[in-house]
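Hi V.,

Quick status before I head out on leave. The structure for the redesign project is tokenized and pasted below; the design run finished overnight.
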């Protein structure tokens, strides 16, 4: 039985009589013939002729069937047998399947269960449903977008591997919201497959899904997960017989409710097992293990702490790179006829300390060579003029190339017109304030790296120093400190890649007593580190951080090699990546746990830069989050996994899905064309 949305239009079936009438009735045409005379012709009366029989049955049937199909098409038919359930929630669904691939999903069989749940969600899709598979951790990876192809959805699920990142629900839910907003399907749903950790959800995040979206959480976690992790390491150095002795202490945390008893912790250095200890940790408590010290034979060592593996092995390993205390080369140029003890205080200040250490070399300015200048990370012009000739040109090239310059302006300081344009301002005559108690620093820019360590309480008072003489300096900008009378005390100028600091007094005890104050040594160290662009080498990084090779090496030839040309990075997984210079430099994101190696493509023989990368320690805390809390925060409606309730399709929805009218209309038009062809082939009636 067939139903119709517009049954009144079936009255049009009476049009089938038209072909029958055409077949049975035919009027002959009159033909007028003119004659000059009709006297010899007999008049025959005109009458119509009615056919008594149908001569061309196929033609009649074609015409009748064509009219019938066209009328049925306009009546919008549907088959009542299709009045079944509409599938899940009526109409097609737009489904976004979020799969947590953070390293905590490696606990036990959680990852296998998560992929099985994802495959089950894909297999449950209806014929009108479309889906997108999204993997998330610290970052978000979106596969094929809004596709009904189950094979294209299941393939990336089968090929997916665990990452080393931490769980972050916010970015994943924002990506799902963006995918659902553009969908025109009547039902939209987000399926979240995760171990639902508390650390992955920030309640302060403002994440809202579009109205009407259903969130279905699929937890794959244990009720009481137990886990221990190595969350950090402390590295201590001490000098012994001209070498450095390194002591490593590991910090271990028990995240579970059961006590950990007598578990082994081992120390590896450059791949060799050096020491092992046993540790017991109380429930939800930390513990520390100190290993036997070892000698740092070279300038760098790869250190790994391994805890006997448990159900989550990723956080049982901790990597670090131990480097020797580097020494920044500083070249101090003084006048050929210097004042007594002109560089004494400066050299002694540079000789102390070890993070970093400084290697000072004092030379008269007229004896310096271009090679001396090229070997320095920082050059100090201590109360003298700049070098001239080839050395002067080498000085300018070094500063423009990235070397730092510190200028202490005293009586013997001069800056000839043919000298390199490096000073932050025009040099003037000395100003004498010895007739008073001297001047002090009245303005200090504590936000600058040179002074930021003095910005905390009890960190030293720079204003306690008295200055009796200083040189006038007309600096238009970059003033970091001024005396109490407004004169420039310290000014900075950037010269291409290098930086210049000009101190308008001396660094001895003749023009001021700064060298006699406790703040002198940290002031000198901060100035040298800033000019050398020194960055304290980090022993380790965390997955997801951005790493810049150029900013992570000590100054000198190694830094120049790293900054020149392309770099090649070897990942812990064995992949080689070329880091070419671009708008963002060569910085890249660390995505794997282990040791990265970065080499310069133009200096292959040099030692590589080694970077230790660890997983986020917070991810090792497997304390569960109530999925309903997450759902209510982003959508306000939660659904449990399972078959969705079905409802019956309306008559209009059935007809719209079947679209039988289109086929009937097309058939009727085709029959009309066939009728024309058949009629033209039949013999004409005389």
């Amino acid at each position: 039985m067939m139903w119709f949305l517009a049954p009144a239009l079936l009255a049009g079936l009476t049009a089938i009589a038209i072909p029958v009438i055409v077949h049975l009735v035919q009027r002959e045409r009159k033909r007028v013939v003119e004659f000059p005379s009709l006297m010899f012709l007999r008049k025959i009366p005109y009458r119509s002729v009615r056919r008594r029989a149908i001569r061309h049955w196929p033609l009649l049937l074609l015409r009748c069937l064509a009219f019938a199909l066209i009328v049925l098409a306009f009546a919008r038919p549907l088959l009542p047998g299709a009045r079944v359930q509409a599938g899940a929630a009526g109409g097609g669904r737009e489904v976004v399947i979020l799969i947590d691939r953070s390293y905590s999903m490696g606990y036990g069989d959680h990852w296998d269960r998560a992929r099985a749940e994802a495959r089950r969600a894909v297999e449950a899709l209806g014929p009108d449903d479309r889906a997108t598979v999204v993997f998330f951790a610290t970052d978000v990876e979106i596969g094929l977008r809004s596709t009904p192809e189950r094979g294209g959805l299941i393939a990336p699920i089968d090929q997916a591997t665990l990452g080393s990142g931490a769980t972050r629900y916010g970015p994943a839910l924002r990506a799902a919201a963006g995918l659902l907003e553009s969908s025109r399907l009547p039902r939209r749903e987000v399926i979240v497959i995760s171990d639902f950790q508390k650390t992955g959800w920030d309640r302060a995040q403002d994440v809202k899904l579009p109205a009407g979206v259903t969130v279905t959480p699929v937890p794959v976690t244990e009720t009481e997960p137990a886990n221990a992790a190595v969350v950090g390491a402390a590295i201590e150095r001490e000098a012994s017989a001209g070498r450095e002795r390194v002591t490593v202490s590991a910090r271990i945390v028990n995240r579970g409710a059961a006590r950990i008893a007598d578990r082994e912790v081992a120390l590896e250095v450059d791949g060799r097992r050096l020491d092992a200890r046993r540790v017991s940790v109380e429930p939800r408590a930390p513990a520390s293990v100190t290993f036997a010290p070892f000698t740092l034979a070279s300038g760098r060592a790869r250190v790994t702490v391994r805890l006997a593996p448990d159900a989550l092995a990723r956080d049982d390993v901790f990597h670090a790179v131990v480097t020797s205390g580097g020494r920044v080369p500083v070249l101090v140029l003084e006048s050929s006829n210097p004042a007594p003890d002109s560089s004494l205080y400066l050299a002694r200040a540079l000789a102390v300390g070890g993070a970093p250490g400084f290697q000072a070399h004092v030379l008269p300015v007229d004896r310096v060579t271009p090679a001396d200048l090229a070997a320095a990370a920082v050059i100090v012009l201590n109360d003298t003029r700049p070098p001239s000739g080839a050395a002067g040109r080498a000085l300018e090239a070094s500063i423009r190339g990235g070397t730092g310059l510190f200028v202490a302006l005293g009586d013997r300081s001069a800056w000839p017109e043919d000298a390199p344009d490096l000073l932050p301002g025009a040099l003037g005559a000395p100003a004498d304030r010895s007739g008073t108690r001297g001047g002090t620093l009245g303005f200090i820019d504590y936000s600058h790296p040179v002074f930021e360590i003095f910005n905390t309480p009890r960190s030293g008072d720079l204003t306690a120093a008295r200055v009796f003489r200083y040189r006038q300096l007309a600096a238009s900008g970059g003033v970091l400190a001024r005396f109490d009378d407004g004169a420039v005390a310290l000014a900075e100028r950037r010269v291409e890649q290098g930086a210049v600091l000009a101190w308008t007094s001396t660094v001895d005890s003749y023009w001021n007593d700064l060298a006699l104050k406790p703040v002198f040594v940290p002031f000198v160290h901060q100035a040298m580190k800033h000019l050398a662009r020194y960055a304290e080498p980090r022993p380790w990084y965390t997955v997801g951080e951005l790493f810049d090779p150029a900013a992570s090496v000590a100054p000198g030839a190694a830094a120049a090699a790293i900054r020149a040309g392309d770099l090649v990075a070897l990942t812990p997984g064995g992949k080689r990546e070329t880091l070419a210079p671009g708008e963002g430099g060569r910085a890249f994101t660390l995505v794997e746990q282990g040791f990265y190696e970065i080499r310069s493509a133009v200096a292959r023989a040099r030692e590589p830069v080694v970077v230790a990368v660890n997983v986020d320690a917070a991810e090792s805390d497997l304390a569960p989050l109530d999925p309903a809390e997450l759902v209510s925060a982003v959508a306000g409606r939660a659904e449990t996994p399972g078959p969705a309730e079905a409802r019956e399709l309306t008559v209009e929805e059935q007809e719209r899905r079947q679209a039988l009218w289109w086929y009937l209309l097309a058939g009727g038009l085709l029959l009309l064309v066939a009728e024309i062809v058949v009629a033209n082939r039949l013999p004409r009636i005389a």
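Above is the designed sequence. The first strand starts at residue 3 and ends at 4.

G. will cover questions while I'm gone.

Best,
W.
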